[in-house]
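Teaching assistant's notes for section 4

Start the section by putting this record on the projector. Ask students to predict, before seeing the second block, whether Addiction module component CHP02574 family protein will look compact or extended. Collect guesses on the board.
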Amino acid sequence: MDIKYLSDAKGTVTGVFIPIEEWERLQKQYKIGEQLPADSGQQLRQELASALQKIKRDDSED
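Reveal the predicted structure now:
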């Protein structure tokens, strides 16, 4: 298995990347579903809008 560890700027491991083929095998083996929350799209839009507003505020302060 080709596992890649993700880390932040300080070197702290923050996640793991595995190839999609391996993920699909694990899903079948452990009966893992891919159910996303019904509002996941709305939540993402809200977070992006908030981030854009923050960037605009930061730019206007310069």
